[in-house]
Amino acid sequence: MSTCATASHNAAEPLAGTSATARTWLLIEQTGPWGAKALTDSHLDPGLGRALDAAADGTGVRIALIRRPGRHADRHGVSRRRLFLAHTAPGRSWLRTTTLTDPGAALGLDFAALGAGEHQGIWEPHSGDPLALVCTNGKRDRCCALLGRPLAAELAADGIDTWEVTHLGGHRFSPTLFLLPYGYAYGRASAHLVKSAVEAARSGRIALDHCRGRSAWDRPAQAADLAVRTRIREYRADALDVVRVEALPSAPAATSAGSAGPAWAVTVAHTDGRSWQVTVEQRTDGAPAPASCGAPLLPPARMAVTSLTAADPA
How many CA atoms lie within 13 A of 255 on its CB side? Predict the structure, then answer.
């Protein structure tokens, strides 16, 4: 079996708690080829790419390039391009869009405010279907191109609002999917899975099958959210929020099955007033797998939920 196939179909590694982390996303349409660091290695002006990267640094905004599925002509001149802004925090998710001739106008955005979830009325609300973003950047990882591009093409042919995107992390889970506005990521995605996830998102719900987590939170909180959702069968996107993440003393020494790492106590709250305490530990007890195509086999660091208890009502 090829490295790509091994990376994408190793079902032994859990998906929960592996999503890219960002509360707000800025997506810029850029046709043509993408390099490994697409913001500075594509037909987007590299100086602009560096400036955008610097402007977003530390603000909670993540920038990615997008393009429609299909053949990508090696074109430098793009007259107009689509941009999206999305905030993924529960209860405050939004998705806004515009079309610009000059992507440099994005440097005028208030990145600090956007990272905090304040769009200040900029651009127009996106009124269409959820956006399905499929990672296809073969220069970053060839699995994403080999597995992601056929998936993106099939979704687009079926009428789903699909974009190819430069990087979602977790190459070993290719093909990887990210849905906006709620910001849940998926791995080992099939067309059937994506269609179910998009249909759920249309009604403000979350499909849990192959879900990696919500990008608004760090990895322990992503795992805790999914564990509570699974326990109580809660699928409404904004019904749960992570209200506290507290680092705990390290777990006991490594066992023969693998090493234990950091641990966290995560408080997950429901809009109806219920809450749960979830203990999450980082472990490296899974079967060795490559982090990306051609990478050496290493035990993956996974988020393990070791306890989940309902909190006593106040």
Answer: 8
Closest CA to 25 of 128, 229, 169: 169
> Which run of H or E residues covers position 86?
strand 81-87
Tokens of 79: 């007259």
DSSP 3-state of 241: strand
The structure tokens listed for 299 are 């035990």
CA–CA distance, 184 with 214 (Å, rounded to integer):
4
**Spacing of C-alpha 296 from chain mean position:** 24
Q: Consecutive sets of 10 residues in the chain, 314 residues long: mean pLDDT of each?
A: 48 87 96 88 94 97 94 64 97 96 96 97 95 83 78 93 88 89 94 95 96 97 98 98 93 52 96 97 77 67 94 72
- For strands 61-67 and 24-29, give the pairing: parallel
**Strands of 11-111, DSSP E:** 24-29, 61-67, 81-87, 94-100
What is the distance between the alpha carbons of residues 64 and 87, in angstroms, rounded to a whole number? 14
Other Cβ atoms less than 10 A from the Cβ of 273: the count is 8
Segment 48-97, tens digit of pLDDT: 999 999 999 999 999 999 999 987 655 555 678 999 999 999 999 999 99
CB 22 within 8 A of CB 58: no
Within the chain, residue ranges assigned H as helices are: 3-9, 46-56, 111-115, 142-143, 149-157, 191-202, 219-232
| Three-class SS state of 20 | coil
Helix axes 191-202, 149-157, angle to 10 degrees: 50
